[in-house]
Amino acid sequence: MTAQEIATLLQGEIVGDPNVEIRRVAKIEEASAGDLTFLANPKYEKFVATTKASAILVSTGYDTARPPVGRLVFIKVPDPYVAFLQILKRITPMPDPFPKGIHATALVPASAKLGSAVSLGAHVVLGENVVVGANTKIGHGCVLGDGSSVGENSVIFPNVSVYHGCQIGNRVILHSGVVVGSDGFGFAPRNDGTYEKIPQLGIAVIEDDVEVGANCTIDRATMGQTVLKRGVKLDNMVHIAHNVVVGENTVIAAQTGISGSTKVGKNVVIAGQVGIVGHIEIGDRSVILAQSGIPKSTEPGKTYFGYPAKEHLRALRIEAVIRSLPELAKDVEQLKRSLEELRNLLSKPTP
After folding, report:
1. How far apart are CA 278 and CA 65, in angstroms?
2. Which is catalytic among the residues 123, 239, 242, 279?
């Protein structure tokens, strides 16, 4: 593509030679002639002067009068990172690892309903009354339990298990090792110290446009539904417990665990290794920073950090005090000694 074709596709403004040919995409510090790169993080602005890329995506307000000009073509867009992803998909299409059609070893009962252009890999097992929507691709070794369903244009990578009755929406991506609908962790203690298993009678529901990373587990509800709402994105190794509801367009990073019956709001950002207790509510647009422990409900739009988590700025102030405790302890000891000396001085009789 030429720089002008890219600018037209992105509805951007071009500064420089519009006929420069772009053959690849690359990071700004590694790019060479013929590459398109981007500048989204100010920390990388220093590379603008040294990059060997032929063109660069920058924000609309970027000052292109800065050197270098002439050799490097600037394409101004509202969001350089999003624009770069669009071009990345256009210039470097992803390979399709899925076989076409239905593999001879796939087990498909007569009661299953398959839409048009469905792909089933080797040793896929569909239970009774499974429904799979049009253009959905299911990789090798996947199992869909009785009465489960997958919508249209979804992608299920190899070795995914969807338990009975669970529902997967349209344009959903489930990466390898995902388990949808395993039993929630429910055990009632008996008087003799053993446990009675609580039946897990509900289902798990994944709505449209959700992506679930490798080795995530989404438990079925004890009763009712565990739900990932539209647009949710899970990183690898995230655990969603029974009856949890995750709101629309929430993103959750790796090794986070959310305990049962917790409600997570819309557009929440949860960083890695966060632990959230059960039966609380995480407010819309909350941000929870890495390795935080959340013991109670959070307010909408606020950022939390620490264990137990507090509002971010307060947590930082507390951390600063904790780090200075050794020095404070020395000061306290010195004050105690000075006070003792003063008491001894005052206790002496006046001559």
Report:
1. 54
2. 242
Task: Report yes or no: 113 and 96 within 8 Å, Cβ to Cβ.
Answer: no
Architecture of the CATH domain 113-312: 3 Solenoid (2.160)
Known catalytic residue at 242:
yes
3-state secondary structure 103-125: CCCCECCCCCEECCCCEECCCCE
DSSP-derived secondary structure letter, 331: H
Residue spans per domain, the chain: 3-91, 113-312
Compute the distance between CA of residue 290 and CA of residue 93 in angstroms, rounded to an integer.
33
DSSP per-residue string spanning 182-216: EPP--EEEPTTS-EEEPP---EEEE-TT-EE-TT-
Distance CA 46, CA 209 (A): 37
Fold held by 3-91: 3.40.1390
Cα three-residue angle 145-151-157, rounded to 5 degrees:
65
pTM score over 0.85 = no
Residue 296 confidence class, pLDDT cut points 50, 70, 90 = very high
Average pLDDT over residues 245-252: 98
Kindly report which listed range (5-14, 156-165, 317-326) carries the lowest average pLDDT score.
317-326
